[in-house]
Amino acid sequence: MENQNNLHLNEQAVGALRESAKWSYFLSILGFIGVGFLVIAAFFIGTIMSLTPNNPYGQGGPLEMMKGFLSFFYIIIALLYFFPILYLYRYASGMKQGLLMSNSDTVSNALVNLKSHHKFLGITAIVVISLYFLIFIVAIIAGVAFAGSAAM
User: Fold this and answer.
1) Tens digits of per-residue pLDDT, 54-101?
2) In this structure, are residues 38 and 77 in contact, taking their beta carbons and an 8 Å threshold?
3) pTM above 0.85, yes or no
């Protein structure tokens, strides 16, 4: 553990971290803009869906029920998207500041935020893959059940 306190970065490593921070900052700003668009879309999706011509189901049809669901869905997606972007922003700003001031504590905190960003994305990937697997299994079971009932 003592060797970790004596870690020194050469100019190539510092340059790579500096450039990584610049690109991460750029990507985090784009991410915040994307979150903003999702939130705006969540508030206006109901109005947009109300403009659909001639709802054949009348008032309270499937399109009417979907407006609230889509608004809720967009807000949830924006919320889930916000946290990894925040971690990336904290990494970028902390790394820039830490390298500028040669402060190893600030660089360390920035790297902790980068770890949190990657951890969040990894957990999200595991959840999505698990959901895909679950949907695949349910589709197979439904297909077998449907084929069995059609054969009778």
Assistant:
1) 555 555 556 667 777 888 999 999 999 999 999 999 999 999 999 999
2) yes
3) no
Retrieve residue 133's tokens.
């697997």
Q: Within 13 Å, how many C-alpha atoms sit on residue 51's CB side?
A: 5
* Residue 40 structure tokens: 């705006």
| Cα–Cα dist 130/128, whole Å | 5
